[in-house]
Design brief:
- This protein is an alpha/beta fold and 193 residues long.
- The chain has a single domain, classed as Dihydrofolate Reductase, subunit A.
- 20% of the residues lie in helices and 30% in strands.
- The strands form three sheets. An eight-stranded mixed sheet has the order 7-6-5-8-1-9-12-11, with helices on both faces. Strands 2-10 form a two-stranded antiparallel ribbon. A two-stranded antiparallel ribbon has the order 3-4.
- The model has no long low-confidence stretch (mean pLDDT 95).
């Protein structure tokens, strides 16, 4: 089974979105360089960010998100982002009316069941859990192996927290990686068990 990674771009003060669920400049680093990160030609990063991000993206088999992210992105029009094979949506509601049942999206109730489904689909590839409330639930349940964050030089002051509403202390090991790119600091920590 592949490892479970909690991930997002995050403001210096720990937010993944502002109070209106908008990411603001959190993804500006994805267009701040001259090295294409994917085939779209839209995402261009520094060579340092490419060397860190591309190999990670290539390992991801499944992404787990909450229903809020799914709704905000309109389900990415039924196509998982960044070439990922499947998306597991943690939700208490059914899939949207008219949703294409052939789209590689799976609607699952509860974070434990969602991560289990994601691991089944991912095999030995990485299961990425979106930071925020779903990521916090997975961390609190002891399901997260690694925390990755792309720290962007902006202060939001308030909004949606990277660690959601975590109510207990969780220890991480010293940074496994700390890499500076253009307009971003890439951090990776193992979760201490």
């Amino acid at each position: 089974m592949g490892k479970v990674v909690m991930y997002s771009s995050v403001s210096v003060d720990g937010f993944v979105a502002d109070e209106n669920d908008q990411p603001g400049p959190l993804f500006d680093w994805l267009t701040s360089g001259d090295v294409p990160l994917d085939d779209s030609g839209v995402l261009k990063v520094s060579q340092t960010s490419y060397d860190y991000t591309r190999p990670y993206w290539d390992q991801i088999g499944v992404t787990v998100v909450g229903r809020r992210v799914f709704d905000l992105t309109d389900g990415w029009d039924g196509k998982p982002p960044s070439g990922i094979d499947h998306v597991v949506v943690v939700t208490h509601r059914p899939e949207p009316e008219g949703w294409d049942p052939r789209a590689p999206f799976h609607f699952v109730e509860g974070v434990e069941a969602a991560v289990a489904k994601a691991q089944e689909l991912a095999g030995d590839r990485v299961v990425e859990v979106a930071a925020g409330d779903v990521g916090a639930q997975a961390l609190a349940a002891g399901l997260v192996d690694e925390v990755r964050m792309d720290v962007v030089p902006v202060v939001f002051g308030s909004g949606k927290r990277y660690f959601g509403s975590v109510a207990a202390q969780h220890l991480l090991d010293d940074p496994a990686e700390l890499i500076q790119g253009n307009r971003v600091l890439h951090l990776r920590y193992q979760v201490r068990r």
